[in-house]
Amino acid sequence: MAGSEKNSMENGRLRLAVQKSGRLSDDTFELLRQCGLKVSQSRTRLYARIEELPIDLLLVRDDDIPELVSNGASDLGIVGGNVFEEERLSREVPLDAEIVMPLGFSKCRLCIAMPKSKAYAQASDLAGKRIATSYPAITQAWLHENGVTDAKTVNMSGAHEIAPRLGVAEAICDIVSTGATLESNGLGVAETVYFSEALLIGPTAKLSPQKKATLDALTGRLQGVLRSRNAKYVMMNAPRDAVDAISAVLPGADSPTVLELAGQTGKVAIHAVCSEDVLWDHLAELKSLGASAILVLDIDKMLT
Ligand code: PRT
Ligand code: ZN
Q1: Domains 108-196 and 231-298 alike in fold
Q2: Which ligand is nearest to the CA of 133?
Q3: Which CATH architecture has domain 231-298?
Q4: Average pLDDT over the chain, rounded to whole?
Q5: Distances from the Cα of 101 to the Cαs of 12, 13, 218, 275, in angstroms?
Q6: Could you state, in order of their start, the residue ranges of all structural domains in the chain?
Q7: How far apart are CA 69 and CA 85, in angstroms?
Q8: For an engineered disulfide with 89, which of 84, 137, 144, 189 has Cβ 3.0 to 4.6 Å away?
Q9: Distance between CA 17 and CA 81 in Å, rounded?
Q10: Among 177, 184, 187, residue to substitute to test ligand 1 (most atoms within 8 Å of Cβ)
Q11: Residue 183 CA: which ligand 1 atom is closest?
């Protein structure tokens, strides 16, 4: 790292390790943008600087993030739960990092899959099988928990889906998102062993008071963005005597605001923040309770 680059990363600025490029990085940068944090990319692309809060980003491969956080090279990291859990389970020396908060993106599943031509009913069907995976620790932990003692994991760093055809293994354990990769290789999910999403990780207890204040500001903004993601602002007119029934239908809403409508005695306006998505079924139910002029609006930011 160039001298001037290193200097600008000191002075109590919080270091956050993020994936340089890949499936996590676009959503990570988008989340930071939604938090009002602009990232200025350095020419060398080893690190980037955030101006609005004293935070420097380390741009690295996702596999390196748990170790960088654990050994103190970075204060925090954003990494897939699958990578964090594998690292946590496979280390002899415990990882000095914990989950600060789940971030709700890069959701996927780690699944054991087998050729569709082979029957699968229960965990014991994996007895004596070889399972190709780059997640041996998570796979073995699941096998152990499910009483399968004589299955073996075969380490592969990619292209697991061809392992059964190559005769390298009878099953695989890999990340599944849409399921299209399994489908196109004639494989079907036998078991889901881990549900994953992006995580903010860090040994937060070790932070200086200055860095802790920056972390609090960051998590406050992240929570605001995550809360508002599915949240909707709902407005409608409704019969005064239907307010209680309508409140019960609104998903994840606290007490709604009920406002008088000029010149109308039997009708009121109802405004509510719904913390869960408002579906067409909800609207149909509101209408059947007498609601009219129903508006559902996205919420950009929310601080509670
Ligand atoms: O270069 P670097 O080491 O930083 O990145 P990488 O190549 O190791 O990881 P990358 O960028 O591919 O993935 C980063 C993280 O994204 C993963 O650790 C997961 O947490 C998450 N993620 C979300 C996924 C997927 N979805 C995903 N679909 N990671 C991988 N896949 C692959 C999977 O391995 C399989 O080959 O996509 C294929 C399956 O996808 P579907 O849609 O066909 O089911
Ligand atoms: Zn990786």
Answers
A1: no
A2: 1
A3: 2-Layer Sandwich (3.30)
A4: 92
A5: 22, 20, 11, 18
A6: 3-106+198-228, 108-196, 231-298
A7: 14
A8: 137
A9: 15
A10: 177
A11: 43
Whether pLDDT at 4 is above 80: no
> Per residue, what are the HEC states of 23-36?
CCHHHHHHHHHHCC
Cβ burial 80-100 (10 Å sphere, 16+ → b, else e):
bbbbbbbbbeeeeeebebeeb
- Given this model, what pLDDT does residue 3 score? 46
Confidence of residue 44 (pLDDT cuts 50, 70, 90): low
**Domain 3-106+198-228 top-level CATH class:** alpha beta
- 18, containing H or E segment: strand 14-19
Q: Are 16 and 65 in contact (CB under 8 A)?
A: no
Domain 108-196 has CATH 1.10.10.10: no
**Does 203 have pLDDT greater than 90?**
no
pTM of the predicted model, to two decimals?
0.86
Residues 6+ apart with CB under 8 A from 23: 106
